[in-house]
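Next comes the chain:
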Amino acid sequence: MDFIEVDATRCKGDGLCVLVCPSGCLEADDRGGPVAVDPAVCNACGHCVAVCPHDALTHSRVAAAEVRENLPTWPDAAVVDAMLRGRRSIRAYKDKPVARAVLAELIDVARYAPTASNVQEVGWIVTDDPAKVRELAALTAAFFAANGARPKYTAMWDRGLDYFLRGAPALAVSYVPADAPFGAADCGIALTFMELAAVARGLGTCWAGLLTHAAKHSAPLREALGLPQGMVVEGGLMLGYPKVRYPGVPPRNPARLAWL
């Protein structure tokens, strides 16, 4: 198969595929159809295939069978805004397991998050086992106890209170290659996708910042996570069903804003 193939009976020469190509590997021919002028710079984003309303273009690096139909319209802005404003960081969870199938759905959504240059290098370590989450919390607590940071949380841990992973029944950790130039941003965006997908399914989440920090310095924690060699943890989410519902949305500080 060529880099791109165009069905001349379907192509209308509207130039949409050329317009949306972010890398400049496509140009229009004299009929307005696409021509691959520099395949080496293509990052396989799939924009050219996804934008064509005529299903006229196939791409050797974009699996046609995996192209999903998009929504014809987006949800109402008021609904989306209310969801974004109403999301809370959940630190109290029901004693109810999170099904592995639900976690798999969240990963499937999160993999559609944008990454720098479409590298798609974000990896995941996920557990639906509360005992494993407790083990990871203990290793996180041990790290902070050893270096004297967060003494209040250490004292609470000693009293049987988990302020590190909050007794969450499930946990998702994201990682990237240590030399990924935008790895932290890529993981943060992917985790945000996951968080919003989780909220839409009735789950609560809280960012696992303490575990993320500990994983950068604690070899036992990285080993317990099974972190692949050469990778670095850049974020995590506690996941579970909230014990409480928040009927109100508290205020936030005014935006620090400068118009240019």
About this structure: Residues 130-147 form the longest helix (18 residues). The longest strand covers residues 231-240. The chain has a mean pLDDT of 96.
